[in-house]
Amino acid sequence: AFWPGAGPQSIPCCCSARSLGLFPAMAQSAAAALQAMPRRAWLVTQASIRRAPCSLQIAASSNSRLSTLSRGSCRGVHRHARAHLCGLSVSRRAFATETDAPTTDATFRYRRLNWVTSCGESYDYEYLVAQQPAGGATARNARSAIEEELPRPVSGWSIVLLPSVSLICSGKEEMRPLAAMLSQRGHRCYILEWPGWTADSQVNFSLVRCKVEELYAEYVDFWCQLLQQIAEAEVAETAKADGSSAAALARPRLCIVGASQSSIYALRALQALRAWKGGADAARSAAAVAHFESMVMVAPSWRTKRSGLFSLLPPPRVSRWFGLTLHSETRMARWVQSFHFGAMRFRAHFVHRGANDGGRLKAVASWLFQRPRPFVQTDAAVLGGLLDPAGTSEGTGELSTGAVADEVAQAASALKHGVLVIAPQGGSRQSPAQELTAALRSRAGGCKGVECNTVESDSPLPHEVSISNVYFLVEQWLGRKRDS
């Protein structure tokens, strides 16, 4: 952190956002120190001006990638800091934090679940819960809202959001805007993400011992565990409520919103929980899956177009070679790494090129693209198509559009309120989601419990660029089911 009175030569180049929020005077001294720096490039993070008073944030977090700014850019930081801090009483705001701003929006809380791999290793898996504070509009500030105990969702729905997985994916950040809008309608939102693609390196490297041929089965088992634990937590929370209250009488109602491949994996996970046989565990699984009443499939996808070596050689073999090369330190490996992590590869796999909000999405994706992870089980597996849902529940064969339509129809008959399929309407080529909706609509007599809808978007992930459109479709779907 920058301390008042410190010289520019003794000041670190990475500032703590929390310390600058706590001490506004430090921010002013930091800007002055940046102004006094010599004429050469210094490593500082991009300045962001938050709406909360006295919250000049030089670094978004301790894990932020550093970018090189010239002395002129530092002058810009100084000008923003001076304008932002002008007219504020330092004595009154001396110990203010960035959470002191009044809010009526949803608060995001981190929680943990226990995940046991197929090797028997146990890990603390971290996920997000988004919900409005208990006081709603009367909550004093965000800090008091976070400290409050979460009530049961007003709408009665708890929504489990599963982001997509790809080479350039945003993890939890992909679903955060949609969760914020849904939670403002009285829903509770759980935001999960794929192991190997999180910001937690320990959870990511838990897959390093997994064979690439077994990734599909490992991920299905992972989603089974998480969905079951969330359902059991919802039931336990309802049981702890006062017996005379409406919350105790209300039955937990869970809806899954899955994007891209996650929607197919969620279907398979629910199917596996229903088919579980064997004593008390089977009874627990059946009781948990009974609380999942609805599902929303956002732009479902189940196949990856392979290119280069991945289209010429067996995917498991080339995935092992490519992933180990990304971890290597040889001269050829450095050349492969420079190409893989370069701008050309990023542009080729970034799906939001030309979007209105492309700048924000690109910044988030480029930062998360640098997260530590086992490249054999992540990057190489994705490029080789090893994370594509297999053709059968046993993990063999190729998956066709008709087979997916059969699975969706079967899941809709098992879910109390059916399945909603949302397909992006745009682009020059027909997407897998459009093929699926066409196959479902062409069935004789239709599919009971299945509703197909489209959203105007050229992106294969419309919930990131057309957030409001997807939100309205999901809210309309849940509203009809809530009334029924």
Q: Could you characterize what this model shows?
A:
The chain has 484 residues and is an alpha/beta fold. It has 20 helices and twelve strands. It has helices at 17-22, 24-35, 71-85, 142-147, 172-183, 201-204, 215-240, 246-249, 261-274, 279-289, 309-312, 315-327, 331-340, 343-349, 358-368, 379-383, 401-414, 432-441, 462-465, 467-483; strands at residues 42-44, 48-49, 56-57, 67-69, 107-116, 122-131, 157-162, 188-191, 253-259, 292-298, 419-425, 450-456. Strands 5-6-8-7-9-10-11-12 form an eight-stranded mixed beta sheet, with helices on both faces. Strands 1-4 form a two-stranded antiparallel sheet. It has a two-stranded antiparallel ribbon with strand order 2-3. The N and C termini lie far apart (56 Å).
- Shape designation: globular
Number of helices: 20
Global Rg: 24 Å
- For the largest sheet, list the strands in their spatial order: 5-6-8-7-9-10-11-12
How far from one another are the termini? Answer: 56 Å
What is the mean pLDDT? 77
Strand content: 5-15%
Number of strands: 12
Helical content band:
40-55%
The quaternary state of the protein chains shown equals: single chain
> Residue ranges: pLDDT <50 for 5 or more in a row?
1-23, 36-104, 392-396
Structural class: alpha/beta
Largest sheet: 8 strands, mixed
